């Protein structure tokens, strides 16, 4: 039962990806691709919200639901890499959990803000609604520093795993570093109202979104793979007795109770 729950947690990354994209693409919220731009007039923004009330509200509802699956996914990676820091201060694990909390809060707040803007737009001044809409897109695209830190912490944990059967394959550390660097293009959108780095541009929106969801899909597959590989671990056993990895022969315990050489 526990193994099935852990495998399901691996699937939450894909569920989050599907739900997030479904919430944002037309004909729902129209944020990927955006119907508006930083150069849209207040009246254009106002008309968009008034004319797409149901779609935007539905997108916000679906996105909020999808965000609930984000946290267990991030926590699963932290829990699995925690084994690597066994016996040492879990600095990388806590860094991951802190970054996960920021990322989940940002996702929840993004869809909350979307729902807020679409709740009573006909009573809002167009200038105010445009300001709220700008905030929504900046919120979506300006969180890349915590995401990059999160991925770097994962990558460092993976590289420090020297066991014979590591939790994650070594190459996946470079996937995390790749993500941490390439997603940074969205960070410069606050300096531009037009062009590829504006909040509706390819380097601020589409490229970071592509890199982000590829990263989630790859790590989701590795979570499931890792959970299934650990199926042979004895529940409650001291994992320090299994230096060659889950499901292997434990080391012998001499009279002093300390692990000795592995049995063959």
TrEMBL record:
Transmembrane segments: 7-29, 49-71, 91-115, 135-159, 171-192, 204-224
Protein name: DUF4386 domain-containing protein
The keyword Cytoplasm appears for this protein: no
Key words of the record: Membrane, Transmembrane, Transmembrane helix
UniProt keyword annotation of Secreted present: no
């Amino acid at each position: 039962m526990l193994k099935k729950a852990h495998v399901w947690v691996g699937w939450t990354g894909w569920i989050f990806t599907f739900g997030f994209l479904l919430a944002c693409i037309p004909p729902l919220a129209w944020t990927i691709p955006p119907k508006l731009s930083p150069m849209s007039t207040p009246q254009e923004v106002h008309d968009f919200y008034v004319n797409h009330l149901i779609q935007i509200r539905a997108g916000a509802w679906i996105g909020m639901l999808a965000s609930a699956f984000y946290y267990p996914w991030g926590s699963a990676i932290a829990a699995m890499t925690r084994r690597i820091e066994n016996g040492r201060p879990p600095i990388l694990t806590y860094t991951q959990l802190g970054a996960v909390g920021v990322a989940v809060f940002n996702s929840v707040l993004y869809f909350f803000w979307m729902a807020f803007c679409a709740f009573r737009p006909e009573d809002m001044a167009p200038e105010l609604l445009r300001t709220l809409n700008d905030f929504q897109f900046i919120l979506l695209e300006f969180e890349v520093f915590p995401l990059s830190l999160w991925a770097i912490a994962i990558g460092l944990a993976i590289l420090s795993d020297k066991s014979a059967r590591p939790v994650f394959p070594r190459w996946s550390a470079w996937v995390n570093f790749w993500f941490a660097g390439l997603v940074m293009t969205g960070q410069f959108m606050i300096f531009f109202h037009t062009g590829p780095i504006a909040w509706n541009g390819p380097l601020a929106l589409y490229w970071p979104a592509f890199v982000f969801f590829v990263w989630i899909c790859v790590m989701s597959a590795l979570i499931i793979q890792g959970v299934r590989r650990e199926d042979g671990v004895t529940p409650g056993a001291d994992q320090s007795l299994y230096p060659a990895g889950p499901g292997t022969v434990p080391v012998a315990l001499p009279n002093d109770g300390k692990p000795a050489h592995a049995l063959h």
